[in-house]
Specification:
This protein has about 400 residues and is an alpha+beta fold. It has a single domain, classed as DD-peptidase/beta-lactamase superfamily (Beta-lactamase). Helix content is about 30%, strand content about 15%. The protein is built from 13 helices and 14 strands. A hairpin with a 2-residue loop joins strand 12 and strand 13.
Length: about 400
């Protein structure tokens, strides 16, 4: 199944609902990943993105052979400046894994429990229209089994993020306002009785991290993850609309029509995403994070088990979602943990083998077209990757803010 573009998410709810994946039956002989053939298949898959209309693509891979960097196309359609592997970009919902790590570390320190309910930490915040914070645990926020409505599905919010983008690009939202939008709607299901991706879950998770620590979730991410791992190119901009250099431009179609004009959406206030997706990073920093996370260097063993305890998402093939990360089996039988991220003009994906030894991160500076699932398939499956008509079935529904 082809990765859903951020544009479809923007129009359908700003980024795909489910960070889920569909497993394919492995071929009789599984080929080695992209590293075995010098990343030839990955290079070809990246070039195919540009041939399909994406302005530019970049990526970095870390495996037993070292670090490989690649790019194709342009970072700026006006100047023709090429895309660079070290460019910064908005990562959208890949932010969620960082927020999850903060809460899991806080649990390891005895400051909270995944079984704590939301009402305990945020009294009165999740209430009304059938919402009851006393029935929703921290764990259910992190694995999207809370049933709480996704605020970016709200029709008025969706309108502001798409057709009303230019009138609202500098608008500031507080976490309380975002949760308030969700509380105007009934839950999708009773807590623990289903699975549905909801950005509201992670806005609440960020609020809890702040209540526990007495500091902002951004400062907790910086203190606990970015500084220890040396992730110097990763930032949480808050309400700042501009991006640090170097970076390319971000391009979006803000309408459903295939002939809709392409807009430069680089500059925006990301507070509408908050703890669900405000982060800016690089492919190199994302690989550093995923390598440490899956390699067991960020969490104690009990919390690592919780991170990787995946609940079924209802997608074909038995895909699962853990606590801020998702898992899938690719067409060649390789299993990866991953997350996608989508925000105006930027589509990203970060993935890793279960041991953290083979990581890969990619970004497109477009949200209306592109198939990052096929690029990930190419990296890990090489010549064995067999995308179905219309895109890869190894990873599906990946983008992020919705």
């Amino acid at each position: 199944m082809k990765i859903r573009t951020v544009h479809r998410a923007l129009m359908g709810a700003l980024a795909t609902a489910a960070l889920t994946a569909t497993a394919l039956t492995a071929p009789a002989a599984a080929a080695a990943g992209g590293g075995a053939d010098g990343h030839t298949a990955t290079r070809a898959a990246m070039r195919a993105q540009v041939e399909a209309g994406v302005p530019g693509v970049l990526g970095q891979v870390r495996d037993e052979d070292g670090v490989w960097r690649g790019s194709a196309g342009v970072a700026d359609t006006r100047t023709g400046r090429p895309r660079l592997a070290e460019d910064r970009f908005r990562v959208g919902s890949i932010t969620k894994a960082f927020v999850s790590v903060v809460l899991l570390q806080q649990e390891a320190e005895g400051k909270l429990s995944l079984d704590d309910n939301v009402e305990h930490w945020l009294p009165g915040v999740v209430r009304g229209n059938g919402n009851d914070g006393s029935k929703v645990t921290v764990r259910r926020l992190l694995n999207h089994t809370s049933g709480i409505y996704n605020y970016t599905d709200d029709p008025a919010m969706r309108e502001r993020l798409t057709k009303g983008f230019f009138e609202n690009r500098y608008r500031t939202y507080t976490p309380g306002q975002l949760v308030g939008i969700a509380m105007e709607h009934r839950p999708d299901f009773r807590p623990g009785e289903g699975w549905r991706y909801s950005n509201t879950n992670y806005v609440l998770a960020g609020m809890i991290a702040e209540k526990v620590s007495g500091r902002s979730y951004a400062s907790e991410i910086e203190r606990r993850i970015l500084k220890p791992l040396g992730m110097r190119a990763t930032t949480l901009p808050g309400t700042t609309p501009t991006m640090p250099a170097p970076h390319g431009r971000a391009y979006s179609k803000l309408e459903e029509a295939s002939d809709a004009p392409i807009h430069d959406t680089t500059v925006l206030n990301p507070s509408w995403g908050g703890a669900a997706g405000e982060m800016i990073s690089t492919a190199g920093d994302l690989n550093r994070f995923y390598g440490a996370l899956l390699g067991g260097r960020l969490l104690a063993e009990p919390q690592q088990r919780e991170l990787l305890t995946a609940v079924p998402t209802g997608e074909e093939g038995g895909a699962g979602y853990g606590l801020g990360v998702s898992t899938a089996q690719l067409s060649c039988g390789v299993r990866v943990w991953f997350h996608g991220g989508g925000i105006h003009g930027s589509s990203s994906m970060a993935a890793s083998t279960p041991d953290g030894r083979h990581t890969a991160a990619f970004n497109l500076n477009a949200d209306w077209t592109g198939d990052l699932a096929s690029v990930v398939e190419a990296e890990y499956c090489g010549a064995a990757a067999r995308p179905a008509a219309g895109g890869s079935k190894g990873l599906a529904g990946l983008a992020a803010l919705r």
